[in-house]
Every structure is written in C-alpha cells, then in structure tokens.
C-alpha cells in the first residue's frame, strides 16, 4: 500500500508574506502595504527583480571591458614609469615569484566576476523560461554567488596593500589608474545584480507564480 505525500503548502498558497526586516509572517488577505510589527514595506516578490537584475548585470559587463583593458596602476622605479593592467600585473607578480599575490589577484579580478556573470545569466534565463531543471541546485548556485561576492573587492585591497608596502620601503612609487575605478564599478554592479535577483522566482514555475510578481509590480507602481 502506497501513501501519496502531498507537498507542504507554500506561503503564497497560505496568503502569507515574510517581512524582509523583522521576518514576521504577515497575512496578505487585505493586501497590507506595511508590516504590522515594524512598518517595513511588504513585497511578495522583489519589485521588478528580473528587469533590475538584467540592468545591473549588463552594466557590470560594460564596465568589465575597460576594467581589464585600461591600466589599474602605474609603477615608477628610478624615474621610469610603466602602466599595468590587471592581467599584466598578474604575470609580473608571477614572474617575480609572488605567485600567491598573483593567484589572489587572478581569482578576485578574473575568476570571480566571470563566475558571477555566468551564474547570474543562467539564473535569469532559466527563470524567464520557467525551467524546472535543477531548481535546488540553482538555489545553491545563487547562494554561492552571494558568498563569493563578498570577496570581489579583494583585488582592490591587494593593490592598495602592495602600493603601501612599496611606498613604505621607498623602493618605487605606485599610482592608481582609471582601470581600478572601472573594476570597482564592476564589483558594485555585480553585487547589486545579486541583491536584486529574487531566488524565489526559481520555484515559480507556474503561471500563478509569475502572476504574483506582475501583481506586486503593478501595486508598487500605483
């Protein structure tokens, strides 16, 4: 004898909404706009999640090009100056035996942004296609993107640390270049893209789930 197990009801089926500020499960029967406990705005889904995530992601991709093509710092030794891009800096550190710093800069500047671009792009495309493929794994992927996002500024910190050490030892002079600004913008916009994406949309594979976001967006606009 087999017993069929019905899946537990979702918050949407119970007409509940979790407050993003105090985590109170709020009854949405009368469509309240504020949390009754802390007064924070209530949203069944993040407002315009897909649109804002795409906008931030594309913007970060645009800034990623000059961040890698333009020099990030200028090193002057005995009066001779040379500009260095991110990749040339990695190769220089590696050639001089500082493979640990080279590896850190490569991971933070090349690998981490690349992983975030691919992962967020895949999440956006699969959500828009209402894909049922690997929903649990995609949720884990989003949490992984959030975790590695905290390490994105490591490259800027390493460059600042190297510049401080060089100046302290009076061996040379290091000055920042425009590339470091564009890389900082890449980090900011990829973090905004990850924050704007609503992972609950991964599980909204039915028309009802997408309708919830549309209704929320319309209510917010009014």
Short summary:
The chain is mainly alpha-helical. 57% of the residues lie in helices and 9% in strands.
N-to-C series of helices and strands: EEHEEHHHHEHH
The strand count comes to 5
Helix-strand makeup class: mainly alpha
Helix-residue proportion: 55-70%
Mean pLDDT level: 75
Whole-number tally of structural domains: 2
Oligomer: single chain
Strand ordering within the main sheet? 4-3-5
N- and C-termini, Cα separation? 53 Å
The low-confidence runs, each spanning 5 or more residues with pLDDT under 50, are 206-221
Overall morphology: elongated
Main β-sheet description: 3 strands, antiparallel
Kindly describe this structure.
With 222 residues, this protein is mainly alpha-helical. It folds into 2 domains: 1-42, no CATH class; 45-221. The chain has 7 helices and 5 strands, in the order ββαββααααβαα. It has helices spanning 49-69, 86-95, 99-128, 135-149, 154-169, 178-196, 207-221; strands at residues 16-18, 25-27, 73-77, 80-84, 173-176. The strands form 2 sheets. A 3-stranded antiparallel beta sheet has the order 4-3-5. A two-stranded antiparallel ribbon has the order 1-2. β3 and β4 (80-84) form a beta hairpin. Residues 206-221 have low confidence and may be disordered.
